[in-house]
Amino acid sequence: MTDDLDDFKALMDAATPAPDAERRTKNLKLAQKNFTHNQGSDAAMRPTVKRGSMARMTEGAKSMLSALSHRGALTATTAIAAVALFMIVPQSRDIVVQPLSRSESPAPAPEADSAALEEPVVEAPVVVEEYAAPVRSKAAAPQQGVSGLVAENTARLGVTSGDATHMMVEREVGILPLSDTEAFSSAEANPLKVTSEEPVSTFSIDVDTASYSIVRSSLMRGELPPKDAVRVEEMVNYFPYSYPAPEGDAPFRPTITVTPTPWNEGTQLVHVGIQGALPQIEDGPPLNLVFLIDTSGSMHDFNKLPLLKQSFRLMLSELRDEDEVSIVTYAGSAGQVLEPTAAVERDKILGALDQLEAGGSTAGQAGLQQAYQVAESMSADDEVTRVILATDGDFNVGLSDPDALKDVIAKKRDSGTFLSVLGFGRGNLDDATMQALAQNGNGQAAYIDTLSEAQKVLVDQLSGALFPIANDVKIQVEFNPSQIAEYRLIGYETRALRREDFTNDKVDAGDIGAGHSVTAIYEVTPVGSDAILNDPLRYGAQAVRDGSDEIGFFKLRYKMPGSDQSQLIEQPIAATQDEVSDDVRFSYAIAGFGQLLRGAEYLGNWSYDDAIGLANAARGEDPFGYRAEAATLMRLAQTLSR
Amino acid sequence: MRKKTSDEDLAKAAADGDAEAFATLLQRHYDRVFRLAFRLTGRADQAEDLTQDICAALPIKIAGFRAQAKFTTWLYRVVVNAAEDARRRQASHSRAAAGWGDVEQLRRAEATETAQAMDWLQRAMRSLPPDLQDTLALTLEDEMTHAEAAAVLGVSEGTVSWRMSDIRKRLRALRQEELAP
């Protein structure tokens, strides 16, 4: 019988528009990218130790990726829901009835096809592979007999993703061609050096903390991290320490402590703690912050825009009433979504933040320029103005030429508007560009992979992120061969500099933000100790006792932000044993932990038990709980290593 | 060559990580996904967004595809669930209901004919509870059997048939209501 249902179908068919060709192309591309991204996790199982100033971004990504397969699937549906909601904001996209073209593919489909197919090839070099695929979740979803139920599980919960991961792992590598353009280095632990042969040790500071995140995510997943992913100095530097603060105008102050070694009676540790100055934020100039937020389609992922919103919510609580915030988006929705608003109007800011949704086609707006415009309209004398770019690496900000982009940023920096970059998620991450942008903008590039990481970067250490205090910080230590027979630097393997690089201002090195602390630890063996491992040479020159009881000489070079000229801080290292603070002891516990994870070459019988004991004894105040977490990780590692 | 490969074989290959198979599969079904998304949401822009989300999430989901179901059944299920989640999310916020519940849309529809068509569709859809909306949207797909719709929705075939007769009844009632002066 012909009934209302047939009428309904006819009407519905007529009313159903053809999919937008442009979005079709984009969506297919997005799907393909995500597909590649998913597969990319096991394309190669070597750890990336991509070094240099670009390192942080890619490495942060790895730890995120490791969490992706499960949580990604779980949260995908929520993300989907959020989108539809916010798209209520009328985009005046009229519903066009195109009955005839409805069932046909839109004309530009062939282009879309080729674009989608090419994508993985382009994407491959950027993909930083997951380093520890082998024994991931074995909680494969039980195969269910009823097809509908299987579909339900898959579609709604992603329960089978563990299974899927497992399958992918078994698959042969080779879906993605792994480009050789990425610098992989699995540096060996710094060897023991004989002072009389090589008295000088030079390295760049490293305030990256990515390695700790990697170690944490591995252990939380129930596996030991791959040795090469463990970088002791990044683990040590993950934790905030309160070393003695600098006095006067100095941007930071080194404190050198010589102590017995927990794991070797015959050696000593030379602990160098550098504390960055912390300008009084409360009394500081008002901040003008312009958030330039990437809302392109790729920001959909649970660990991108949703996390970004939560992160900014956290950060907002750190701002003072007189600080001002503005939000500019690029791609998709309109430019400025929040006019400059005093931070005291929390509800208004949060409201604007909530409205943000990823999606829509790329607007091609000059997002960055608009952000700068807004920033300039906000800035007044004695105020700090900063654009904070939050993105997953899709730099469609209106300037396509990276060099032109950098120039603009550098110029704006000189006129007083700085730029920081917050990386979220991964997939089309352009870490090199992010780092370059932030460096040119006098800012930091930080990675936000979890809410607690957001808490750390945007709340606990916000001032460090907003106010860099020194660039290109290099350390050189010369040991006195008459006092010290052997030494080794713990960690910093990939940060080694040549001796002559120290005074060469053209050689790049690490930066320090306000309030940051950096730690370096040497293990030294005094002359005459029975812990000396190298036998003396028969024909080597004997070290002459020169009467000095200095065991070494410490030099540090840094540049003030914006300056090309480095400045020098130097001081002798006395052999006297100082009082050991909790901070120092805790850093030893972490350094020992890191070395245990790397193979404990020099640790003798020192075990996880000792590390846990030391960490617990030195926990101190631990206001953020980082140290407690570290002890938990040590216990996990101990169990896993049995 | 791939054109001739069955959906299910492509889906299995895609689940095993074959990017090309995945691309082929999605291109083959993109428009279908979009049309169903439109019927479920009632708005072109929402359908576009929903489709985008499905595209974004499909690479993860496809890994879980088991050849026990027809690929399209599985895919429709993904779409229906995505729409359902979106709807639930909307309901949990105190915003004007969107999609089939959105009257605003009528005002923006320019062509009168479209407006009339949309008007009727609007009212018809809105008069149905969500499970019937889903069932109707799904069964409007060409060549969709009650059995397949049942598999997609995770209900029995009898339930679908029962719902369809319920929908007919409701549509007829609506029509008569309109015809009455």
TrEMBL record, chain A:
Residues 288-466 form the VWFA domain. Pfam families: VWA, vWF_A, YfbK_C. This is Magnesium chelatase subunit D. It comes from Ruegeria atlantica.
Automatic annotation (TrEMBL), chain B:
It comes from the Bacteria. One of its GO terms (molecular function) is DNA binding. Keywords: DNA-binding, Sigma factor, Transcription, Transcription regulation. GO terms for biological process: DNA-templated transcription initiation. Signal peptide: none annotated. Belongs to the sigma-70 factor family. ECF subfamily. This is Sigma-W factor. The lineage of its organism: Bacteria, Pseudomonadati, Pseudomonadota, Alphaproteobacteria, Rhodobacterales.
